Amino acid sequence: ALKLARKHGIPAVASYHTRYETYLRHYWYLAWLEKPLKSSLRWFYGQAREVYVPSESVREALLADGLADNFKPWPRGIDTARFDPEKRSMAWRARHGIGADETVVLHVSRLVREKRLDTLTAALKGIAAPHRAVIVGDGPDRGFAERALPHAIFTGFLNGEELAAAYASSDLFVFPSDSESFGNVTLEAMASGLPCVCADATGSRSLVVFGETGYLAPADDAGAFAGFLTALVSDA
């Protein structure tokens, strides 16, 4: 597409919305490709007249990687009629065996290692207060998460009103992924009234206001995540 645009003198623009280069470090047999891929991205996006990015934190990360500053903001949004605290459902909680007074810590994502399932599972096991963990989503590493969290509730993939009910019927949201360019799930959780404990990384850093709408912690620091989650679970 880029070759055709250059051949015909047509301005080319691009959208950057997935941090594929960060995925590679989670797969030992691909980790060596991270530097070549970043070099390729610098060349490719440098040819575009404009590159649209979903958050300021992504722009900052790309500039730090040496990309040209041809960025323009293209932020995301979510349906606030669908994702709303009013969707809280005691029937949904009861259907999943959750008591009326239990505090639910929710995670929503594809269940793959680049979502930092290692940090997620260690953090949930480290919460020093009574809670129920609910994991929404599916993926090739679901088995890893299920083995690490045998007492958690795994709902599988949800969408539509069922997903909205899962958010609103929970109490806290945790999302340690550091491979996001935006993080729609964090915005969906916030719209549903949940404080969010997220990775201090691209995407989440542009959405969560530390100490006001949630907390940010290093993506590889399960202890920090567990500490923030414990504090929130313990403070109605």
Q: What does this protein look like?
A:
- With about 240 residues, the protein is an alpha/beta fold.
- It is built from ten helices and nine strands.
- Strands 6-5-4-7-8-9 form a six-stranded parallel β-sheet, sandwiched between helices. A three-stranded parallel β-sheet has the order 1-2-3.
- Strand 2 (about 50-55), helix 4 and strand 3 form a beta-alpha-beta unit.
- Helix 6 (about 115-125) packs across helix 10.
- The longest helix has 13 residues, at about 35-45.
- The protein is elongated, with a radius of gyration of 19 Å.
- The protein starts with a helix and ends with a helix.
- The model has no long low-confidence stretch (mean pLDDT about 95).
Features:
236 residues, alpha/beta, six-stranded parallel beta sheet, 9 strands
Shape: elongated
- How many distinct helices? 10
Report the structural category: alpha/beta
- Overall pLDDT confidence: 93
Strand content: 15-25%
Q: Determine Rg (CA atoms, Å).
A: 19 Å
Spatial arrangement of strands, main beta sheet: 6-5-4-7-8-9
Number of DSSP strand runs = 9
Give a short account of the largest sheet.
6 strands, parallel
Topology pattern, helix = H, strand = E: HEHHEHEHEHEHEHEHEEH
> How helix-rich are the residues, as a percent range?
25-40%
From the N-terminal CA to the C-terminal CA, the straight-line distance is 53 Å
